[in-house]
Amino acid sequence: MKRRSLLASAAVAPLLALGKPALAADKVLTVAAAVFPDSLRAGTGSFASLSLMTQTNDPLILRDNKSGLHPGLATKWEQIDPLTMRFHLRQGVKFSDGTDFTADDVVYTLNFALDPQSAYAMAARINQIASVTAVDKYTVDIKTKAVFPTLLRGLSDIIIQPKAYVEKVGVNGFTAKPMGTGPFVFQQWVPGDRYVLTANKNYWGGAPKVDKIVIRTIPDGSTRVAALMAGETNIIEEVPIDLLDQVTGSGARIDEIGTTAGLVLTFDPTIKPFDNVKVREAFDLAIDKELILKQILKGHAEVLQGQVLTKGVLGFDPALKARPFDPEKARQMLKEAGYDFNTPVPITTQNGKYVSDTDICQAIAGMLNKIGVKATVNIVEGGVFQQMNNAMKFGPLYMVGWYSLGDADFATVWYTKAGKRTNWNSEEYDKLFLAARSTNDEKERVKLYHEMAALAYKENPSIFLFGLPSIYGVTKNVKGFGAAADKVLRLSQVELTK
């Protein structure tokens, strides 16, 4: 703890040297994010990106901090036939440049997202859409290829882009300067440093209660905590478990919520010897998850039960259990598989993206080293991780968290070929996934998800680690903020008191 405190004090010194210009005005909210994406490109497939993009652009369907769904740019919807959903749009809404929001913007956005040339990662959430049609200025029909029970939840991840603006400035122009109907207006983006926005006083949901927000990326957890305690920030993401007492002792508060994020270590089976399922299973057996839960996470998590889903999620299989810790068996399995113990195994992770992620990786590397594996930890910043993700080149083993938001579809999609999030592929898994996505029979869906979980357990494309919380530090002068289960910042109703 003392070492953490000293590091934090030293690391925050450059911030303190700048003084407190952001907090001099009581209507400027400063947030410290754990990671930033490499750009503001729409649809990149991470909630770190969505958290920034939803400040300026709204979806048709809004999601709250507990993953509940509410009307957004669509005020209501109705099922016209088994394959067609009609959406009635909010009227009188304007983009921040003063132009009207209409059905044309919805049609444009969804067609853009679904176009393979767009490389829109979030398209995996809605790829059962067959067509999008403007019925009139404020009505849109979405027809699907089959029954699509997760359409509404999928649309909550798709921000609506202004057709006329994007056609004028191009996709790159929109990426450089996003513009939408959201609660805030783009002012400045400095990659790897800050995102600055001003309040949209004409926001359809009511004017924000602050004049400006500054979102800074501070990857190191100790530095984020030090910045909060020094008054440099009002809200920080991902407070390290071992610094919780320091935050509360400073007069700030902890805002924590359980998430549906399944933290996993994913293998790249195109890299030998990780094409061998026996090697993948041996690595799993070498990790003492219960010890990590107790000593590093201090109980602020749950051990995943041999699957990416957390307990309580639709599709969770209670019959599956986490693989037991058995280092002797792990070592023997590696020998039987002809494993070369001189093979270097870098574990790629971000720092601060998830609670105690770096500490967890260090512990895992140590456990693997105990059975003779030459494991190391490769820490990369968020932008670099996004580039690796785009190229699907992370190295042999990398840490990531998949959110289900309460429905197995949203986490399991990333193990499909269409999800484009893993180099492990299974035709059987893909068929089961598509079948589960194409029926409204909940019992049938659960049965199919159980079959998928059993297949993934057998094949071990990932080591299933923990279901994690999201932990924020908040200064006492902040009101109206809540911890988000999907880690998307919702700031329009946040206010600062004196």
Could you explain how this protein is built, in words?
- It is a single chain.
- With 498 residues, this protein is α+β, with helices and mostly antiparallel strands.
- It has three domains: 2-56 and 182-252 and 475-496, Periplasmic binding protein-like II (D-Maltodextrin-Binding Protein, domain 2); 61-166, Dipeptide-binding Protein, Domain 1 (Dipeptide-binding Protein, domain 1), CATH 3.90.76.10; 258-469, Dipeptide-binding Protein, Domain 3 (Dipeptide-binding Protein, domain 3).
- Helix content is 31%, strand content 23%.
- It has 16 helices and 19 strands.
- It has helices at 2-17, 21-24, 47-53, 103-114, 151-155, 163-176, 221-229, 244-249, 277-285, 289-295, 327-336, 357-370, 382-391, 409-412, 427-437, 442-459; strands at residues 28-33, 61-63, 69-71, 74-81, 84-89, 129-136, 139-144, 184-190, 194-199, 212-217, 235-236, 253-267, 302-303, 344-349, 374-379, 397-403, 462-474, 478-479, 495-496.
- Strands 1, 8, 9, 10, 11, 12, 13, 14, 15, 16 and 17 form an eleven-stranded mixed β-sheet that branches.
- Helix 1 crosses helix 7 (221-229), helix 9 (277-285) runs antiparallel to helix 11 (327-336) and helix 15 (427-437) runs antiparallel to helix 16 (442-459).
- It is globular and about 65 Å long.
- The model is unreliable at 1-25 (pLDDT under 50).
Average pLDDT reading: 93
User: What shape does the CA trace take?
Assistant: globular
Number of strands: 19
In total, the number of domains comes to 3
CATH architecture of the largest domain: Roll
Question: What is the CATH top level name of the largest domain?
Answer: Alpha Beta
β-strand percent reads 15-25%
Using the coordinates shown, work out and report the CATH topology of the largest domain: Dipeptide-binding Protein, domain 3
Q: What kind of assembly state do the chains in view correspond to?
A: single chain
CATH superfamily of the largest domain: Dipeptide-binding Protein, Domain 3
Main sheet record: 11 strands, mixed
The total count of helices amounts to 16
Structural class: alpha+beta
